[in-house]
């Protein structure tokens, strides 16, 4: 599974679909973020609208991606959290780490700050 | 109506791709319980986390070692047992993933999710027979959540 990516105003927007779980979507997310970084993009927006399930492994990949991008002086933000993903981010207290947005226009504008 | 006799057993080799296999195999049995969407999701995640831990940490990824998953009804609870063939671990030695210094760690959130989503989780370490994890969730609440969801949809 390859995660679709599009580009807008210098931002890479990743759009995973379905599961980000151990052995299913976690590696695909890691590869997509790695590819974006290798291509020189340090502004990454992950649109989670079509993600049905995320487990601790998927959460771990998001955290790892966040750290990789931040360490390069960039920013990784999340867009359109489905309730089940929001719930897991609350439980793991990662809502305090990630910047989460509900509107793509606002999200894109936020990277210009 | 939930089947009081529900009993499912699945046994897999310790390969990470089997986490998905176990989840899919058990999902159809969970569907028979007519759980609410949220409960089905939370129980599914708990099973995934338990099996992933049994494969990765319990059996250390040794494919020749098995993970056995049982789903049943016991004493008014949905009971899920996950057994590996490993040597066990020190529960108190697992770092708290909510401590600020652990928040950005890649791993270590599985037990937290299981504790949050199930009513009770308990590890038993058996020197000869590996580690058994028992997770319980009360059927009364599951039935009530299911009925509430049904009402909301009507």
Give structural attributes:
heterodimer; A: 113 residues; alpha/beta; Transcription Regulator spoIIAA; 5-stranded mixed sheet; two-stranded parallel ribbon; 4 helices; 40% helix; B: 154 residues; alpha+beta; Heat Shock Protein 90; 5 strands; 25% strand; globular
- Estimated radius of gyration of chain B: 16 Å
Strand content of chain B: 25-35%
Largest β sheet strand count, sense and barrel closure of chain B: 5 strands, antiparallel
> What is the molecular shape of chain B?
globular
The fourth-level CATH homologous superfamily of chain A is STAS domain
Please write the string of helix (H) and strand (E) elements of chain B: EHHEEHEEH
Describe this structure in words.
The complex is a heterodimer of chains A (113) and B (154). Chain A has 113 residues and is an alpha/beta fold. Chain A has one domain: STAS domain (Transcription Regulator spoIIAA), CATH 3.30.750.24. Chain A contains 4 helices and 7 strands, in the order E-E-E-H-E-E-H-E-H-E-H. In chain A, the strands form 2 sheets. Chain A has a 5-stranded mixed beta sheet. A two-stranded parallel ribbon of chain A has the order 3-5. In chain A, helix 1 packs parallel to helix 2. The longest helix of chain A has 16 residues. Chain A starts with a strand and ends with a helix. The mean pLDDT of chain A is 95. In chain B, 40% of the residues lie in helices and 25% in strands. The model of chain B has no long low-confidence stretch (mean pLDDT 92). Chain B has 4 helices and 5 strands. Chain B is globular, with a radius of gyration of 16 Å. Chain B has a single domain, classed as 2-Layer Sandwich (Heat Shock Protein 90). In chain B, helix 1 packs antiparallel against helix 2 and helix 2 runs antiparallel to helix 3. By secondary structure, chain B is of the alpha+beta class. Chain B has a 5-stranded antiparallel beta sheet with strand order 1-2-3-5-4. Classes of the chains: A alpha/beta (113), B alpha+beta (154). Chains A and B meet through helix 2 and helix 3 of A and helix 1, helix 2 and helix 3 of B.
